[in-house]
Amino acid sequence: MKIGIVGATGYGGAELLRILQAHPEFSITSLYTSSQQGKNIDEHYAHLTGLFPQKLEEINPKKMAEETDLIFLATPSGISSKLAPELVEQGCSVIDLSGDFRIKNQMKYEQWYKKKAADRFWLEEAIYSLPELNREKVKGAKFISNPGCYPTATLLGLAPLVKKGLLTENSIIIDAKSGVSGAGQSASLATIYSELNENLKVYKVNQHQHIPEIEQMLESLGYVAPITFQTHLIPMTRGIMATIYGNIDTNITKEEIWDIYQQSYSDEPFIRLRKLGNFPTTKEVAGSNYCDIGLDFDERTSRVTIVSVIDNLMKGAASQAVQNANIMFGFDETLGLQFSPVYP
Amino acid sequence: MKIGIVGATGYGGAELLRILQAHPEFSITSLYTSSQQGKNIDEHYAHLTGLFPQKLEEINPKKMAEETDLIFLATPSGISSKLAPELVEQGCSVIDLSGDFRIKNQMKYEQWYKKKAADRFWLEEAIYSLPELNREKVKGAKFISNPGCYPTATLLGLAPLVKKGLLTENSIIIDAKSGVSGAGQSASLATIYSELNENLKVYKVNQHQHIPEIEQMLESLGYVAPITFQTHLIPMTRGIMATIYGNIDTNITKEEIWDIYQQSYSDEPFIRLRKLGNFPTTKEVAGSNYCDIGLDFDERTSRVTIVSVIDNLMKGAASQAVQNANIMFGFDETLGLQFSPVYP
Amino acid sequence: MKIGIVGATGYGGAELLRILQAHPEFSITSLYTSSQQGKNIDEHYAHLTGLFPQKLEEINPKKMAEETDLIFLATPSGISSKLAPELVEQGCSVIDLSGDFRIKNQMKYEQWYKKKAADRFWLEEAIYSLPELNREKVKGAKFISNPGCYPTATLLGLAPLVKKGLLTENSIIIDAKSGVSGAGQSASLATIYSELNENLKVYKVNQHQHIPEIEQMLESLGYVAPITFQTHLIPMTRGIMATIYGNIDTNITKEEIWDIYQQSYSDEPFIRLRKLGNFPTTKEVAGSNYCDIGLDFDERTSRVTIVSVIDNLMKGAASQAVQNANIMFGFDETLGLQFSPVYP
Amino acid sequence: MKIGIVGATGYGGAELLRILQAHPEFSITSLYTSSQQGKNIDEHYAHLTGLFPQKLEEINPKKMAEETDLIFLATPSGISSKLAPELVEQGCSVIDLSGDFRIKNQMKYEQWYKKKAADRFWLEEAIYSLPELNREKVKGAKFISNPGCYPTATLLGLAPLVKKGLLTENSIIIDAKSGVSGAGQSASLATIYSELNENLKVYKVNQHQHIPEIEQMLESLGYVAPITFQTHLIPMTRGIMATIYGNIDTNITKEEIWDIYQQSYSDEPFIRLRKLGNFPTTKEVAGSNYCDIGLDFDERTSRVTIVSVIDNLMKGAASQAVQNANIMFGFDETLGLQFSPVYP
């Protein structure tokens, strides 16, 4: 299958290249860019020296649809809202890694993203797919909206309890922590090394655009209440940890909670539930498509603490997009994704 | 005044040396050690090359009390429970930086520290002093128990709201994050560079020994309920951030909450309340005695988020101990502590 | 082919597991350990959770030779000097990643390693193979000594000029820099996070045990003189950079020097020569088997500067060992090693 | 004495503020800026919250000279070439931390800096002062050119041997390594966290503008030959290490070389010569005005290796400027600079 990538010069794009280069069924045909046409990708990313012969091409939906079977859009929000529908109309399958088609409510998108929402028709066409929660709609789909990094870690951590209806209303708090690559490869005073190294920051307090995405999915799973979601910038490049808090009013033990997770996830190839007393660290999933989860329940406070970690550029972006692509086209979901994390 | 330090080879001890070397009233007379007698401190800490002529001496309470006016105990928990009383009995003033005299309830100490508690008499003699909350008992005292690093950041962040009785029962969650120096200068597989760099860990989930210390002080301020307190290891050397969550049921605005903090702290020389919309980062207090605080209130969830940062080795240990020493001996509380943070 | 690994709990061993898990011809049969028998590898390395069902087994050369076709010895120096010959005698092929069989002169080994040298017979049996320099002896061999990390980066950087005899006698200086994982997964005060983070150290000045290994190979290429080789510990986990200096007395331009490298390496699948004016960084080869090289010649001083980077755990250890294994058994040298670096 | 600072929003400026705030004789009167007039410095540097009441003022040489006794110019190169003479002409003393007045040969300045050189008259007026090498000219001077960070570490490491004429012609190689703060507080793709973390780069190979500054001073000390000087970016914020190599043709021992350094530096308050076998690390001088030096001589190669470390923002910029200011005005050279390094 012939694959095109828009936004290969971003960090998510770079990971798509790494994954797809070794994928047995997908073959990278073309790389598209809005600003660096005619260059080779290794002029931008020296680590790719010698690996991709093709030149970066300009964005032309008609030509793109002719050249490829599937396009990954690894672009900033605000771009695919127009580009994705054009590609789909031309008959090309699309997986959009941006936020543009995740929030189905236009008003909410515009309130949190401060950008114009995509067209309502296309918002409904775009299937939001976090495979472990709703893979059934993906097979045969033409247009996928890939989840955000924070929502992936958070929703996989919350889903088993939420589906059982065990969490008290208005009790969910997510203290989320991300490596700096989540900010992308863009220069600003706020992301230079000397400002972030040996430093720890909270940001977008009560204003992160992933809040409505998480709430939308929680609602579909049966939890209808606003969440508290705060994000922190950790002095590391990769990795997300969501430390999730919620109250449980019914009488329950940590072993029973663990069993609920075990039942939910025992068949999932990319979720690794840790034993009670064992919690995952971000580096233990680095470079991989795994989401590792650990949990504890404190009887003193009737509060559960769930720790969910992913690699923000992988399960939080590129490898999850490939997982969705595998499902779309009927391949084994794990195809080309069964590599071990890179440690240390 | 003649000062002795036990445990100068630890990180807290090293910071005491840095502060006291420049203090106008305190003069370091002697350094004591249980294991490196006869050495010079610069054989252990090359950054101190040439700065301290005295040799490390063995621990001998009688001799220590004769040589010094005040001893700082920068030792691991389990040591000062015996040593501190001996020194006080010999007439020496003591500031204990360990956890041994913080928890006044012996059972709770033994439950959380898994060590034998100090004698009940001495637990009552030792004044727990977080100056901004209870400095009045310190002046003229002979024996001070210096607060833990996490409790300092947490309690300074919570106190104004707790004193007003505004936080809903059982709603306090503290997601705490610390640099690695909090683990001290001790070698273990868990703290080597390759395991912690580019990694993020949660640890001691629902089991951190600072939980009873925080609850004890909250109770004295009027909040009687267990807290949820989870700790994370951040890939940086210094700094603590406590991200604190709590529910407020009464009708209130973020501006009103900010005013409560402003009233509490406007006269405090070492607390810097940030304006609404501005949150402190850990490096902004590095190397200093400051605790910087920012906050927001989310009307969607009726939940306040308070962000409190300190340097764990300074306001969380050494410089707070010197602040207590200043008060003990009637000096200006800021004496020798008015240095700016080191940035970047 | 059935593969066994001794020392899978080290960092080099962990990378062998990652590579071999995805290798199309090699299959990991058994993991051996001197200290953790009966455990699963994921009890030591949580990032491998669920990936390797086999238990760690004790070291028993006879049994190991029966169970496997090839054993990788990823052990500290001093262990394989005995174990490797026993395995080879039992008919098992061996690739030794330790330093025990690299130095062919016993006296030099003992002088630099401060350990007893291996038996002279076996020192001659063990083929030191840095494939780009001497792959011709490897095909069909039974016992390979895999090069050290620093020697790999250094020798690949020096070889083209040395072979041409262009470097002035006694002019080679290598200023080498390594990430901390080179020190292995062992706890000591010198390798804890707080000591190495935000710090830069020189170590083993004029005493590094890789000096005789480099000199031995240089001699075989025609350069007979001692080198200056200093090593620095960089606050990062992975990566080696060798910054190499040498004088050239003949009249030459940088373009001519570059051509010499281009001729030497244009057919090498794992060496990427950068264009003049472009120099590689360590992260640009992280997680891969590449050695990237850049160079410049300064006419003011008649001195060449060559910059050679590798991932110390990969081309400096595990992936180079697999490259050697591919050659040994007649597979394509790049089999299972064609993955892109992991960036950022 | 009334002090003004131009460029307080840079990292060197921030360190000047930290030092001068605590200096017993210098008092910061005014902060000047070309771009942020009317703001308070804590709007740019939150770590300075509450510490400096004065507003940032525009640059007006006449007014500046009236308001202050001494101006520190912590500006990028190309600005003080005009501003410094205007201030001196108005009667104000000036210490310039930029490169504009260091290179006395206009052609060389323009060749290496790619900028227009300062006026010849003022180049001669500006006294280049690295106090340990030429403090005698500074007392009573009105206009000081403060050395660069790399030249400070390099020249202090080389001076004792160079003065003795012991180094072979054309044998000096300096492999220099710097933390990222040397690049200043400016945003570019090359200095964002995700590009530099866990990475190691060489830069400006054979082109660094500090080369002519080092050669100019070496020439004045008697060494007339070009040097090789390569710079590396280390993933840390602060610190410079110069690893210096040179040949010695005369018969000498390492003990004799060490004695030469000891004689040169035994009275220097800010140079700490390490014992043979002991080498300094960058963090051991962080936040201080110290330059720590260690050395070894290898008889195999007749080559000396000298390791010299400083804090690039301190002895490499701000604290050395204050040291020069102390000398200019006849104060004790160590006034306000006797603080210990910040460790860990």
UniProtKB/TrEMBL annotation, chains A, B, C, D:
User: Quick one: where is this thing mainly located?
Assistant: cytoplasm
> Looking at its record, which EC class is this enzyme?
oxidoreductase
List the catalysed reactions. Answer: N-acetyl-L-glutamate 5-semialdehyde + phosphate + NADP(+) = N-acetyl-L-glutamyl 5-phosphate + NADPH + H(+)
Identify its protein family. Answer: Belongs to the NAGSA dehydrogenase family. Type 1 subfamily.
Q: Does the keyword RNA-binding apply?
A: no
What this protein is reported to do is described as: Catalyzes the NADPH-dependent reduction of N-acetyl-5-glutamyl phosphate to yield N-acetyl-L-glutamate 5-semialdehyde.
Q: According to the lineage, what is the superkingdom? A: Bacteria
**What's an example GO cellular component term for this entry?**
cytoplasm
Name the catalytic site residues.
149
Kindly state which keywords UniProt assigns to this record, in alphabetical order: Amino-acid biosynthesis, Arginine biosynthesis, Cytoplasm, NADP, Oxidoreductase
Protein name listed in UniProt: N-acetyl-gamma-glutamyl-phosphate reductase
Query: Its annotated pathway?
Result: Amino-acid biosynthesis; L-arginine biosynthesis; N(2)-acetyl-L-ornithine from L-glutamate: step 3/4
Its GO biological process annotations read: L-arginine biosynthetic process
Localization (cell): Cytoplasm
Spans through the membrane? none
Q: What is its EC number?
A: 1.2.1.38
Q: Which GO terms label this protein's molecular function in UniProt? A: N-acetyl-gamma-glutamyl-phosphate reductase activity; NAD binding; NADP+ binding
Q: Where is the Semialdehyde dehydrogenase NAD-binding domain?
A: 2-141
NCBIfam families from the entry? argC
Native source species: Lederbergia galactosidilytica
The record's section on PANTHER family has: N-ACETYL-GAMMA-GLUTAMYL-PHOSPHATE REDUCTASE, CHLOROPLASTIC-RELATED, N-ACETYL-GAMMA-GLUTAMYL-PHOSPHATE REDUCTASE, CHLOROPLASTIC-RELATED-RELATED
